[in-house]
């Protein structure tokens, strides 16, 4: 039991400098600026949150081409046609449809 406690303590200590809680407008601006400089494929940990959280924030909320709201009838028809063609392979249906919607 002592070994697992020390692993937990090391894990907590490695995350002490990271910000937790709701995202602020300043953090959103910093993520957008980082993407403008480095692109959306290279994530650095110089931000106040870990790279994974920054990437997810960008992909699900901050990307400029993301569409919010209900799907249009045309989008639903396209997804249904692609599902008939490709089956339950969600990744291929979404990437083939060019619909930039997020589940979040």
From TrEMBL:
Residues 1-25 are annotated as: Disordered. Residues 9-18 have a biased composition (Basic residues). Residues 15-66, 67-104 form the HTH myb-type domain. Pfam families: Myb_DNA-binding (PF00249). Residues 15-62 form the Myb-like domain. One of its GO terms (molecular function) is transcription cis-regulatory region binding. GO terms for cellular component: nucleus. It is found in: Nucleus. This is Myb proto-oncogene protein, plant. Keywords: DNA-binding, Nucleus. Gene3D superfamilies: Homeodomain-like. GO terms for biological process: cell differentiation; regulation of DNA-templated transcription. InterPro entries: Homeodomain-like_sf, Myb_dom, Myb_TF_plants, SANT/Myb. Signal peptide: none annotated. It comes from the Eukaryota.
């Amino acid at each position: 039991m002592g070994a697992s406690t020390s692993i937990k303590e090391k894990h907590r200590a490695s995350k002490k400098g990271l910000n937790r809680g709701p995202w602020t407008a300043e953090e959103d601006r910093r993520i957008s600026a980082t993407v403008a400089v480095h692109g959306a494929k290279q994530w650095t940990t110089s931000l106040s949150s870990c790279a994974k959280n920054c990437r997810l924030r960008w992909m699900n909320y901050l990307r400029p081409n993301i569409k919010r709201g209900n799907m249009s009838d045309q989008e639903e028809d396209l997804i249904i046609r692609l599902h008939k063609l490709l089956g339950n392979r969600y990744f291929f249906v979404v990437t083939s449809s060019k619909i930039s919607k997020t589940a979040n």
